[in-house]
Each structure stands twice: as C-alpha cells, then as structure tokens.
C-alpha cells in the first residue's frame, strides 16, 4: 500500500526461460555412415560438412550433440529419427538430455 492506503500493482513475476535439451546420436556398429549424415542434414539442418563432422565424432567418441531445443521439439526430433531409422532397418539410437 502507498501512503493513501492504495494497493500498488505487484511487480510482474519473472518467468524462468524453459530448460533446453541436447538431442544426441549414439554410435552403433551397423548404421551406415552415409545414413547418419543424411539424418543430420534432414532432421537437424546441418550442411554436408557439419553433418560429416558430427557423424565422425559420434563414431569415434560414442555419442554427440545434434542440436539443442526446448523439450517438446527435442522429443519430436528423437521420435522422428528413431522412426526414420526403423523404416530403413538401421539400429541408430537418438536420445535427449537436459542441458
Ligand atoms: N559406427 C558406424 C559405422 O561404422 C557409423 C555410425 C556413426 C553409426 C554414428 C551410428 O550415430 C552413429 N558404420
């Protein structure tokens, strides 16, 4: 209240930015390298060079980040990649992790 007893407007509540999630590809021994490069281009908007770099990182280190997104978009990417790999009978796995 101010000096006249009038209720003052409350400061607006600060909203936290939504948490972001890393979408990661996991290495396996069977999925062709070219297929992984196509996935990175098609679902993560990478050019051929970026896609190749990420694919090789996953191949040598076991996993790698494809992109960082809000939760619902990350979950959709994971589903799309797993479904695309399944359609082509590759065991490629894709997961999300909170950043
Ligand atoms: N290791 C696979 C091969 O040698 C290639 C590969 C890379 C598979 C990345 C999955 O997420 C992956 N053909």
From TrEMBL:
Signal peptide region: none
GO MF term set: peptidase activity
Record family assignment: Belongs to the ClpS family.
Species the sequence originates in: Parachitinimonas caeni
Task performed by this protein: Involved in the modulation of the specificity of the ClpAP-mediated ATP-dependent protein degradation.
Species lineage: Bacteria, Pseudomonadati, Pseudomonadota, Betaproteobacteria, Neisseriales
GO annotation, biological process: proteolysis
Keywords for this protein: Hydrolase, Protease
Record protein name field: ATP-dependent Clp protease adapter protein ClpS
Ranges for domain Adaptor protein ClpS core: 16-94
NCBIfam families: PRK00033.1-2, PRK00033.1-5
Gene that this polypeptide is encoded by: clpS
